[in-house]
Amino acid sequence: MHLAVIATLILSLFTNPVSGSFSDTFADPSVIRGQDGYWYSYGTSDPLREGEKVLHRLPIARSADLVNWTYVGDAFGPDNLPSYAAPGSLFWAPDIRYLDGRYVMYFTVTDTATTPANWDYSIGAATAPTPTGPWTHIDAPVVAPRPSGGSYWNTIDPSQFTDVDGRKYLYFGGFFGGLWVTELSADGLRAVGQPQQVAIDNKFEGAYVVRHNGYYYLLGSSANCCAGPTTGYSVLAGRSTSPRGPFTDREGVPLLASRAGGTPVLDQNGNRFIGTGHHAQLTDLSGQDWMLYHAIDRNDPFLDEPYGINERPMLLDRLDWIDGWPAVRAGAGPSERSRETPVTRGVVDDRFAGDLSGWRNPAGWTVQDGHVRGQGTLISRRSLGGDVRVETDLKTDRSAGIRIGGTTAVVSRDGLTLTSGGTSRTVALPGGAATWHNLAVTVKGRTITAEVTEARLRDPQASVTVTGSAHGPIGLVSDGGADFDNVSAAPLFKAVTKAAPTPRTGRLLDADEFDGPPDSRWTWVRQDAAAKVEEGVLRWPVQGADLVGTGNKASVLLREAPEGDYVVETKVTLDLGEDSVRNYQQAGLVAYASDDDFARLSQVAIWNTRQVEYGRELAFAGRLSYGGNIVGPPARTTWLRLAHHVDPVNGEHEFRAGSSRDGKTWTWGGVWTFPKDTAVRIGLVAHGGAQPAVNADFDYVHVYRGA
Q1: Which of 22, 58, 73, 222 has its CA 20 to 30 A from that of 643?
Q2: pLDDT digits (tens, 9 = 90+) for 406-423
Q3: Which family does it belong to (predicted)?
Q4: Three-class SS string for 497-539?
Q5: How far is residue 458 CA from its own chain's centroid?
Q6: 365 with 51: CB under 8 angstroms?
Q7: Whole-angstrom Cα distance, residue 569 to residue 635?
């Protein structure tokens, strides 16, 4: 291999977190590519560095390559705050968009001056001519505080979306109240109509919606964002044929159901990063999708002192689409060091900061104010064949677009027209392109697709596909009155279509079918005499006790675990009903080192929801820490698995959780770890509340060799 190629490959490697160059924490990141060709990311208001102690009000970072970032300032200074924000209000979870020629930032205001209450959340907005400001606040909340009894719903975590018909929507909400969508006014600055709930409460926050292959995907973060070393945050998805839902997961389970659905997109995988969530998405110049998100280093979970601000740096990883569903690194989860980087420079790549020496036919074209303007056809002197992605930012009040050989994609008052050979198709482009828009053309074999977006954030306002041939010179076409910038052409990404491996079962090592009383392989911690084998099941009345915290009154039924990799499975029937509050009745599997050091996988009632929670308790900095990770939706009868793997590098015990509603189709969630020398046993639990009385019926426990 040529030395220059080797050097390029070495330089292309990057290490997570990508925010480490400018901050120790950068939570809830959003991202956009500015008209200047740089990428900008925005984070929740926190100190950036250990010891700083001063909050940055929505800090902003800039990058040319999405890997190396530089802090460029805060969105809001002390003299530029919303008039409706109460003194001391915090600003969380910004969402950045480019709408109708200006940048619009949505954000959470934690305390609103219009009510006397604290934590009366609302959604604010501010506009700016550039990605770094100056920001002008809208004079009233986009979504005002929403009272609920003596408190207020979580009106937090905004995310904007523009549909193909030009309608604008805002998604928002959190655990207390669920996720909602409201339509916005044409300028995107006011909520109109009646909001509609799209995901159940007590499970989701951090909504983000994208459109892909005709579906609308609602991605939300689940479990807890901020439990230090036991943070189990993850990203789950549902999809719909409408931006208003109903959204269902891969198994067809609604996100609004009490036994709430959600297909895993991103989960912790046993490396040092836990609590992976609250993300934003982007597409690089090759067409590959990427996800920016925050996570917690389990070895350094707090910014300064333990149990203070959770340290949540920003990570970057590839986002794949597997069988129609998004999955970070095809389901492999967060990377510590990546062998691939986003494509942020094309073979053809011009930001028009100089002359037109890289182009043919420059007559009638001029570079001014950092972009090119002209009439006719401007042809690049560089070319590339095969499958490609060509894109440009443009604005025109007439007709302009991209040419690839004899194929053209043109934006005009009539819409977006894609022509190849003798085939031509036109689709509407609501509002036209009188302000800056992005036009992207992808060529994959004989399939040619053109899309128009305002800011390349997976919300195409026009999309059209034809079958044809697009090979030859790459150029810009205009009949006058058009401006172009950020022109690129790059080889089209090679899609990953095969999911990352998930745990499988090998030969059966051990089993108890509960045909008789638990034998000598089982031992009790605090024996429960009410648990009995009858009718071929271990029938265990759910106890009014728990393991979490220092009380430790719940019983645990344990057996020794085999050496090496194995999978333990049980089938548990637990009739928790639906919708009603039955906190926190549960039953399932446990990986147990002690009462204060365990990982518990249970079907559980969490307020009005029924979830499969994979919780972890451990001692940290003189206190007990507990947090949960969410796996698949439960049924009345749910199959549960814990897959154990020994890390060959550090010897840690890794336990990955899986659940199934039929014993055949498995959903795999996150990983909790135990240190190398920990003696971990496996077993069963049934606790969390004795009222109303309910039995957990365990049909069997099987232990398999891991495969």
Answers
A1: 222
A2: 999 999 999 999 999 989
A3: Belongs to the glycosyl hydrolase 43 family.
A4: CCCCCCCCEEEEEEEECCCCCCCCCCEEECCCCCCEEECCEEE
A5: 14
A6: no
A7: 16
